[in-house]
Design a protein that fits this description.
The chain has one helix and eight strands, in the order αββββββββ. By secondary structure, it is α+β, with helices and mostly antiparallel strands. The strands form two sheets. The protein has a four-stranded antiparallel β-sheet, with no helix packed on it. A four-stranded mixed β-sheet has the order 2-8-7-4, with no helix packed on it. A hairpin with a 5-residue loop joins β7 and β8.
Length: about 120
């Protein structure tokens, strides 16, 4: 009985610890972070480590002159955020995201990818 209670208490403690570290960070993206792709992607997809609050999460994609190249608003489904792109040319593009995860923590970040050789 005592051991059982201790285990229950310990798992509660561990759950709390894990939760505190579970902000929504970028897990991976397509195009991949820092990648050079031969063909211009028609969308950018971001996978996060936690589910997102759609109303407070967004992503923008800009070319080297700062011109935005999204073709619409981002769509969010669980931990995946996706934004359609216009037909983009060769060059370097900057992806800037900010999200609010379901644990109410805000995180943000940027990365680039390159279209070309
Ligand atoms: Cu968090």
């Amino acid at each position: 009985m005592r051991t059982k209670n201790l285990v229950a208490l310990l798992s509660l403690f561990l759950a709390g610890t894990i939760d505190a570290n579970a902000h929504a960070f970028l897990d991976h993206a397509d195009p991949r972070v820092g990648a050079t792709v031969a063909t211009a992607p028609r969308q950018v997809t971001l996978w996060f480590t936690q589910n997102l609050e759609p109303a407070f999460s967004a992503v923008t994609v800009s070319d080297s002159s700062g011109q935005r190249v999204e073709a619409g608003k981002p769509s969010i489904n669980g931990n995946v955020m996706r934004v359609p792109l216009r037909a983009i040319k060769a060059g370097t593009y900057r992806v800037a995201w900010h999200v609010l995860s379901v644990d109410t923590h805000k995180t943000e970040g940027t990365f680039t990818f390159r279209v070309g050789q």
